[in-house]
């Protein structure tokens, strides 16, 4: 009886996660339930079901669940440390907690809890997580070019520059890339640096609080970007102008790029305003750009490099190491310019609507329930 009840509990949790913007799709094999059993205790699952995408204090969540505030505070703190939910802190105020979507979210927070069984489950599940139709409308990540790769006569906006995204922040955390970490644990590592994922602001505080990252200075964060370029890693911030993180991805390990690489036209799916072009005259066909490209977008024919526009994601890695400066990034035509929401909240709302999981009415009902529970919960 207990097993059957727990099975139903985890299925409810799976649906709860699938109703979040990032999704958690059902599979025939049920691997998603195995992942949840591995990560969440039954008590964790019950608590997670009481959370939404609205930040709330422990007293409100406690009232909703019919438990004491002290009990809720303890359990929420434990779940935050496990990376199962997201929490924020403001000076002089109680902590607040909200549901975390699976990707980008819970999975990335598991960097300190990985084992081979969990990695195996995730590798089986990963192909189901990227819906190319939704991703094309509102991707969770976008691509920004590495420094110095955009042609001098091409206008580039501040939120299209990784360095400017960093300079706009005051708090910084660097964490190991979970993708390269898991592949290394499986004996399939690529040898590229792992400590390359940057988080800012409250996200930086969160990673430090749960023991997954270390605090660094702005100068150190800028050095991470340089290290990423040298290693041939694609800079992938969140798809918002006020970026809260920047990933540094490779096409051999990172789940999103690996999945995109299998698509016939990844350049049409990625949110990027730029594409690479080759000046045929100086090009010597050395092939360095082929080795640098993470999307197999470059070929050499007749000792001249050729860029496949359908595969180019505008990262600029081919530009910065061209010995004769024959490649540069240029802005795509107006109709191909991606829309970048201002904040991560706006991105999540758009994504939820695109997936048919969030409507204005549902959002209003969620806000009204939270307001009513805040009013009813004992102070």
TrEMBL record:
Residues 274-302, 303-332 form the 4Fe-4S ferredoxin-type domain. GO terms for molecular function: iron-sulfur cluster binding; metal ion binding. Gene3D superfamilies: 3.30.70.20. InterPro entries: 4Fe4S_Fe-S-bd (IPR017896), 4Fe4S_Fe_S_CS (IPR017900). This is 4Fe-4S ferredoxin. The lineage of its organism: Bacteria, Bacillati, Bacillota, Clostridia, Eubacteriales. It comes from the Bacteria. PROSITE patterns: 4FE4S_FER_1, 4FE4S_FER_2. Keywords: Iron, Iron-sulfur, Metal-binding. It comes from Youngiibacter fragilis 232.1. It holds the Pfam family Fer4_21.
């Amino acid at each position: 009886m207990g097993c059957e009840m727990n099975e139903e509990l985890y299925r409810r949790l799976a649906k709860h996660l699938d109703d979040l913007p990032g999704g958690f799709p059902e599979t025939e094999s049920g691997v998603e339930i195995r992942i949840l059993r591995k990560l969440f205790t039954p008590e964790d699952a019950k608590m997670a079901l009481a959370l939404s995408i609205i930040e709330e204090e422990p007293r409100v969540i406690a009232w909703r669940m019919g438990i004491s505030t002290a009990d809720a505070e303890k359990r929420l703190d434990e779940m935050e440390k496990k990376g199962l939910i997201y929490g924020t802190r403001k000076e002089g105020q109680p902590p607040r907690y909200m549901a975390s979507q699976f990707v980008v979210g819970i999975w990335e927070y598991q960097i300190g809890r990985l084992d081979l069984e969990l990695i195996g489950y995730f590798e089986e599940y990963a192909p189901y997580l990227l819906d190319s139709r939704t991703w094309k409308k509102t991707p969770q990540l976008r691509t920004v070019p590495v420094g110095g790769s955009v042609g001098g006569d091409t206008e580039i906006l501040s939120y299209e520059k990784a360095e400017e995204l960093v300079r706009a922040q005051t708090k910084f955390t660097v964490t190991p890339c979970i993708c390269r970490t898991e592949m290394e644990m499986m004996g399939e590592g690529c040898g590229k640096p792992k400590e390359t994922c940057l988080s800012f602001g409250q996200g930086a505080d969160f990673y430090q609080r749960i023991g997954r990252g270390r605090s660094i200075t702005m100068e150190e964060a800028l050095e991470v970007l340089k290290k990423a370029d040298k290693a041939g890693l694609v800079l992938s911030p969140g798809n918002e102008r006020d970026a809260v993180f920047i990933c540094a991805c490779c096409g051999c390990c990172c789940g999103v790029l690996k999945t995109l690489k299998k698509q016939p036209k990844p350049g049409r799916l990625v949110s990027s305003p730029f594409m690479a072009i080759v000046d045929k005259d100086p090009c010597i066909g050395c092939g360095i750009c082929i080795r640098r490209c993470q999307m197999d977008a470059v070929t050499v024919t007749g000792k001249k490099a050729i860029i496949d526009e359908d595969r180019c994601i505008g990262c600029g890695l081919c530009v910065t190491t061209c010995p004769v400066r024959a490649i540069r990034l240029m802005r795509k035509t107006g109709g191909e310019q991606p829309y970048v929401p201002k904040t991560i909240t706006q991105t999540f709302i758009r994504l939820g609507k695109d997936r048919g999981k969030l409507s204005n009415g549902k959002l209003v009902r969620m806000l009204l329930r939270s307001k009513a529970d805040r009013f009813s919960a004992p102070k």
